[in-house]
Automatic annotation (TrEMBL):
Superkingdom in the source lineage: Bacteria
Any GO BP: fatty acid beta-oxidation
Cross-referenced InterPro entries: ClpP/crotonase-like_dom_sf, Enoyl-CoA_hydra/iso
Originating organism: Advenella kashmirensis W13003
Molecular function as annotated in GO: catalytic activity
Protein's name according to its UniProt entry: Enoyl-CoA hydratase
């Protein structure tokens, strides 16, 4: 079985490649654990640049529901909490973080993108946050901080799909680039990192990306996920119309 996450390590940058293409890189427990451990290891080694992308047709399809029938309510709660802890680790990273996304991206996959400081999409990429349909409040404040309250309300409450062009217009994306040009995006991130010293850059990130909301984000998620019937709500969401 292939590793769910590939990490390409260089002195000045680690590239995290989600590697479950047959599952659209959906977030299985093993993938979430690998991402958490990988980000923690990068922080321990003071890696200044972390880049995230996905193998296959898309970046990430969000929560992996493939074992829903055998998972208990407690299992599901634990899994969404682990995802939120991973997202918080990424959102408050002392490194420059870059998301390179393509294809169709959903839920917690789009939340990973929202946690990154630099966000680039291939033209034609789409995004959707469907979690509110089964009662999960995950990553809401981070998305709000990027696009503003009214836009976040419109997109999150309707759970509608939006494309890369709209994402650029509302500030969710900062640049549209075809995959063959992503190497230039990475090189630009390297060059930008070189402008400031590591200490100065980290201090700047501490001010701009405070972890003051971390506990509130986790509390909101737990309250929403712990409401009775999470499994049934997910089943209802997955049921074909």
């Amino acid at each position: 079985m292939s590793d769910p996450l590939i990490i390409e390590r260089n002195d000045d940058a680690w590239v995290f490649i989600l590697n479950r293409p047959e599952k659209m890189n959906a977030l299985s427990p093993a993938l979430v654990q690998a991402l958490t451990a990988g980000i923690q290891n990068a922080h321990a080694q003071a890696v200044p640049l972390l880049i995230f992308k996905g193998n296959g047709k898309n970046f990430c399809a969000g929560f992996d529901f493939s074992d829903l029938d055998t998972a208990s309510e407690g299992d599901l709660l634990q899994r969404v909490v682990q995802i939120e802890l991973m997202l918080d680790l990424l959102a408050t990273s002392p490194a420059m973080t870059v998301a390179l996304c393509h294809g169709r991206n959903f839920g917690a996959g789009a939340d990973i993108i929202a946690c990154c400081k630099r966000r680039v999409a291939e033209p034609g990429t789409t995004f959707r946050f469907p979690g509110i349909k089964f009662g999960l409040i995950l990553g809401t404040r981070r998305f709000q901080n990027l696009v503003g309250t009214q836009t976040a309300l419109d997109i999150l409450s309707s759970t509608r799909t939006f494309d890369a062009s709209e994402a650029l217009n509302i500030g969710f994306m900062q640049e549209l680039q075809a995959q063959e040009h992503w190497s230039t995006v990475i090189e630009a991130a390297r060059n930008n990192n070189a402008v400031l010293s590591d200490v100065t850059r980290q201090n700047l990130y501490k001010v701009l990306y405070s972890n003051a909301e971390s506990d509130q984000n986790l509390a909101a998620l737990v309250r929403s996920a712990a409401a009775p019937g999470l499994k049934d709500r997910i089943r209802a969401y997955l049921k074909p119309n």
